[in-house]
Amino acid sequence: LVVWFFLHCWVVMRAARRFLPVRRLPVPFWASHRHFAAPAWQHTPNPEVRKWSLPSSQHRGLGAPQTYGRSAVDPPPMASALLALPGVRSVLLGADYVSVTKEGSSEWEDVITAVDKCLAQPELLQEVAGDETQSAREWTPIEKEIVEVIHDRIRPIVQDDGGDVELLEFVEATGTARLKMHGACAGCPQSANTLQGVIDTALRHYIPAVLEVEQVEEEETEDGPIMRHEHDGQPHDGWFEANPDVPVVGTFAGRSPDPKILARIKFMSAVQIPKARLPKLDHIAVKCVDCNARRTFEAVDDLLHSDKNPTSKIAVLICPSCAVRLEVV
Description:
The longest helix is centred in the middle third of the chain and has 20 residues, at 141-160. The strands form four sheets. This protein has a five-stranded antiparallel β-sheet with strand order 1-2-5-4-3, with helices on one face. Strands 10-12-16-15-11 form a five-stranded mixed β-sheet, with no helix packed on it. Strands 6-7-8 form a three-stranded mixed β-sheet. A hairpin with a 5-residue loop joins strand 1 (40-43) and strand 2. The chain is built from eight helices and 16 strands. The chain has helices at 2-16, 77-83, 108-119, 141-160, 191-206, 239-242, 259-264, 300-304; strands at residues 40-43, 49-53, 66-69, 88-93, 97-102, 163-171, 176-183, 212-215, 226-231, 234-235, 248-250, 267-273, 283-288, 294-298, 313-319, 322-328. The chain starts with a helix and ends with a strand.
């Protein structure tokens, strides 16, 4: 009877909760002041970039996203605070998100902890993003159409992954729209797919005057984090057989190289990396001069570090018939 009585009471109270008003417990005096939690972060297709989404109550405006690096002149307070953190190389400020690019040698665990503490400061979240206008110069009629398509059709897609895209100019003589990628899209291994699969398709569909899309890369400096290489492959004359100890990795079809794949590789080019530059190098951007294919090699320091790779060399397959050899000199 006792068990039945308590069970009956429990069922009645569970049913009554549906009709009773909800009471909110009073907030203790020691917790009555307002706390700000750091926005949540997420992975992006670019392993060197993480995206922090700002809560809806902390949106900073609807302006066009802006990218700031360590050499930026008079950046806004949020960008300045983030760039002052160890391991942060550049920052993309959007209307409701922030994308942070780390230095190649830094660990994400340390960078994320520092960024979380920085973004937990409420005064930094009250800024207003950049102006809605993308450039101070006058756009041509076609350029205005391109900017509108980018704003309405393309930008929401790339911003979901923590990136952004802007129009630099439209060359009417060749029908070329020259674009620059920002945030997670800059230096991303998937940026070529985004450029061709999303941006090129959308612009050519909505604007017949656009015949091709060209990505303008960030300028390379002698000791900067980016190295560019134009692959003009030459016959390798049995290089794989002569160097069996050198690691080989692939960047296509999601497969590890096997003897059958290596047998089809006929052409190779070399990238020589000064040893002093290796720790500062974030990625190597490779472009094939024949087929215009693009590949990006990330974490180069890890691939060629003497502790992990005694040969200080590695061969990277960029297509079913070509390879690029990286070596430290």
